TrEMBL record:
GO MF annotation: an example: DNA binding
Native organism taxonomy: Eukaryota, Fungi, Dikarya, Ascomycota, Pezizomycotina
Keyword DNA-binding annotated: yes
Alphabetical keyword list: DNA-binding
The protein, known as: Myb/SANT-like DNA-binding domain-containing protein
One family name in Pfam for this protein: Myb_DNA-bind_3
Length: 144
C-alpha cells in the first residue's frame, strides 16, 4: 500500500478468537473521538454491564474487546484498549464533576443550553471545596 493509503483500509486481519485487529505492531495514528464513536463505545459498555462483564468499578477484558469490536463493526474505527480505558476514566471524572454541580442547590441546570449556572460566590465556594483543573472548568460536559 502507498504511504497515502488510509490506515483503516489496510486493517482487517483476525486474531485467534476471530476478532478483527489492526495489522502489525503499529496501531495507526492517534485515535480521535467523535460523537458517533462515543455513542457506540458507551452503548457497548452499557451492554457489557447488562451482560455481567463488570466487576466493581472495572470492566472485564471481554467488555473492552466488545467495545473495540463495536467501533470496528459500526465505524471501521480502530482504537487501542488504552484509548478506551482513558475515554472511560475521563468520562467518569467529568460525570462526577457534573453530578457535584447538579447536587449543589446553589447551581441551576438549564437543559436547553446544557449549562449549569450559579452566582460568583457559589462558584467560589464550590471550587474551594472541590478544586478542579482549569481544563475541567472550560470543557463542555455533554450530559443531558
Amino acid at each position: 500500500m502507498s504511504g497515502g493509503d488510509d490506515f483503516a483500509a489496510a486493517a482487517g486481519s483476525s486474531d485467534a478468537n476471530g476478532l478483527r485487529v489492526a495489522p502489525g505492531k503499529h496501531r495507526g495514528p492517534r485515535f480521535s473521538w467523535n460523537p458517533a464513536f462515543e455513542a457506540t463505545f458507551f452503548r457497548s459498555l452499557c451492554e457489557s454491564v447488562n451482560a455481567g462483564l463488570r466487576e466493581g468499578s472495572t470492566f472485564k477484558p471481554e467488555a473492552w474487546d466488545r467495545a473495540t469490536q463495536a467501533l470496528i463493526s459500526h465505524h471501521n474505527a480502530y482504537a487501542q484498549k488504552s484509548h478506551l480505558i482513558n475515554k472511560s476514566d475521563n468520562a467518569r471524572k467529568k460525570f462526577r464533576l457534573w453530578r457535584g454541580l447538579r447536587e449543589d442547590l446553589e447551581f441551576i441546570y438549564d437543559p436547553q443550553s446544557k449549562t449549569v449556572t450559579a452566582s460568583d460566590e457559589a462558584w467560589k465556594r464550590h471550587i474551594e471545596v472541590r478544586p478542579v483543573s482549569t481544563a475541567d472548568c472550560i470543557l463542555p460536559l455533554p450530559f443531558p
